[in-house]
Amino acid sequence: MTVAVWSSDTRRHEAEGEVWVGVVIPGTETPARVDTILDALVAAGVDLVESSTYDDSAILAVHEPAMVEHLRTAHADWMASSIPEEVGQDRVVPYFFATAAMLDGLPGRSPVAAQARAGQFCYDTMTLVGPGTWEAAKAATDCALTAVEMALRGERSVYALCRPPGHHATRSAFGGSCYLNNAAIAAQALRSGGHDRVSVVDLDAHHGNGTAAIFYHRDDVFYGSVHVDPGAGWFPHVVGFADETGVGVGAGSTTNVPLAPGSGDAEWVAAVERIVASVSTYQPTALVVSLGVDAAADDPESPLQVTVDGYHRAGELLAGLGLPAVHVQEGGYHLSSLGGLVTAFLDGFGG
Description:
This protein has 12 helices and 10 strands. The protein has helices at 32-43, 57-60, 65-80, 83-87, 100-103, 114-117, 133-152, 182-192, 209-215, 265-282, 308-319, 335-350, and strands at residues 3-6, 18-20, 23-25, 47-50, 157-160, 198-202, 221-228, 254-259, 286-291, 325-329. The strands form 2 sheets. It has an 8-stranded parallel β-sheet, sandwiched between helices. Helix 7 (133-152) packs parallel to helix 8 and helix 10 (265-282) runs parallel beside helix 11 (308-319). The chain is globular and about 55 Å long. The termini are close together.
């Protein structure tokens, strides 16, 4: 039976919309996601545990200190500037990105203006920072680390209700509605806890570019992902292709299985089977599941057509590896079906 870890502080992040192609649109990554999943877990009889609180050491084992400090202070700095009074914007919204191409070899400096600093670590305009964003993101990592601690004590399956999600956050940048990479933090914590080899399996509808990047040069953490094909125009657009398999000592430790838009249970489950086979060959001693359920047919954020049965089957396949597992919540935005999809996977894993 899976145990679930949660924190009420994960509700504190309220982006109040996104800026997409220059237009302010309603955000789908809302606090209501927490309550919808909680209700489903309770109805399914899953035991709930409140998270413990941890210092930043596990976060800093994965993320650059400067990015972490930016997330901690960005909203206060923004509110202390003239921007809220000038334009009426109380969320941190990046508009300027000092990319390598923009600098073109020039050294660059840390920007002084708050509106310029907003894009120093964020790589899109969708991932806004509000007054409770840091607290919620930190609480999400606490959920993941509590789940890891329980797994290290012998629990076979622990689910962490992480919100906001994390798998698009790289070592030194955030985006894609993600701030801190909960799955990568969990995987590194399992390594630090004594597991020599850990596998991360990403079921989210979108490639977890952040997790992939963090472990791309390493051979002690395997990353496998099934997701909608970025080559068909889907986020994260420029990475997540099948020929990305790792570099250096990490060569062969990444497996991506991109799927065509419209793919349903047959194609998706077959892709999960491929990932499971790769994990089995890798022979890890612990598993982290990036449990995004936005590949579901009703979800507004992807074109995949996976059903409850597909997620249940994925749980069964991953359980077949016989590994202690930490399941970290990623995407899933259709509130009416979200909780049922999560519990279907957990039920499949729990057998």
